[in-house]
Amino acid sequence: MIQPTLFDTDENYTVESISNPKTYKGIYAFHKYWGKKPIESLDYCIENCTNKNDIILDPFLGSGLISKEAHNLGRRFLGIDINPFSIEHTLFLLSLPKADDYKKAITSIKKNVFSKISETYIIENSDIATHFLWNKDKLQEVWIKNNTSRKKIQLEPSEFDSNKIKSFENYSVRNIQKGTFFENARINSLENMTIYDLFTKRALYNIDLILDEINKFSGNLKRSLQLTLTASSGQMSNMVFAITGRGKTKNQQSEKIEVGSWVIGLWRPDLHFEINVWNCFENRANKLYKALLEQDSSQILYKNNIFDFYEKQADMGIVQGNSKNELKKIPSGSVKLIITDPPHSDRIPYLELSEMWNCLLNKKSEFSEEIVVSNAKSRKKSKDEYLNDMREILNEASRILTNDGYLLLYFNAKDKNSWSFFDSIEKQNSLVYLGSFPMEYSANSVVQDNRKGAMKSDYVLVFNHSRTEQTLGIFNKIDGWTNNKPFKEVKNA
């Protein structure tokens, strides 16, 4: 059964829609992830570069949105990623639970843990705190809600509050990995960090209580509950900054302190909030429930290795592994479209940034296998190694593409050296560069790269085995299409 698409099922994606992408909503907006690509460009390329039952490959799966879109459009799909979270999020999108089953599961979890979690946040007058304002290791305020008006009440911390916090000092996690972190100023990470640095011991105690209940479930329902936890975990952490001084640019500075939000990364601000874990979890669960009401809950079956995907003629293959190694297992001339957003040099260290989520999923990350440039020197992930890996992947891409197939690369890097694999494509294999078009986003993102010298948008680079009028006709009407090399605007590193 073909599941409904994110937007209207009767909509054909046009060149105009690529330039005017819609904002993510529903299931696709549920979980944060970096580099989510607008659906419009994905679907336009899928519809115009492939036919029904053709194989589409994404060797850097990321959030996995493309897997669902490819299936919705009747194509076979094969996705690969080294990141455990990427695999779990993709499988979540492909096999959503029924809304009623999900709601019953949340109700069951609440019945079993709500009173236990509330007990950890109780204050001296028996109210349940919603927020704790910290300045480094010092508790500054305790917030509760007025029972009648629901407005917040800000209280001075008491000895009772301090003793409550101290009662968790020796807590050790039970369902959660302690994590592997590296010295990387780019994402505010330190080598000696563990999961205990990202959350209070009290928060981890409560997260473990929720995980105890989640682990009683199985299959796609369990996965949806796990992803509800990871989706809400940022707001449960020590990384929720406090907003102060609103209006100071207009000489109307307020002394009011407001709750910020977790920005993807590992920045632990001095002035930050500790937020009631259950409230974070339930708020995110309510959003997912509403999204599930609008979705088909049928499961999309998949194979988890390349041999079975081809041997069994499967519609879907989702493989965890190193793309460079996995691509070698794919038969020559079997893929019609490779469309992928590979690591952009040192722009985003995906696996390092996903470590918090992978810890909560109790998954171990294979950092040595990631293809990336990392500012974490101890990882020894250099630009030269990255470029060699990218060249090898592009050689394999040329081999596995059909004669009339396409390779589409979403790419952005701030220096020409990071683009040097580009020049080797035509030299080392039969792929021909057709041109590129700029990638438009529906809104500015806090995870977009603002560094000096960075390009102002991603580009979609288009290759195939032969430049013909028919192939060019698919792309040359897209706004901004050019057969020039996009990195001409980039300065030397």
UniProtKB/TrEMBL annotation:
SUPFAM superfamilies associated with the record: S-adenosyl-L-methionine-dependent methyltransferases
EC number: 2.1.1.-
Protein family according to the UniProt entry: Belongs to the N(4)/N(6)-methyltransferase family.
GO molecular function terms attached to this record: DNA binding; N-methyltransferase activity
Protein's UniProt name: Methyltransferase
Signal sequence annotation: none
Any single biological process term in GO: methylation
Enzyme superclass (EC): transferase
Keywords: Methyltransferase, Transferase
Species this protein is from: Treponema pedis str. T A4
Transit peptide is among the record's keywords: no
InterPro entries xrefs: DNA_methylase_N4/N6, RM_Methyltransferase, SAM-dependent_MTases_sf
DNA methylase N-4/N-6 domain segment(s): 27-88
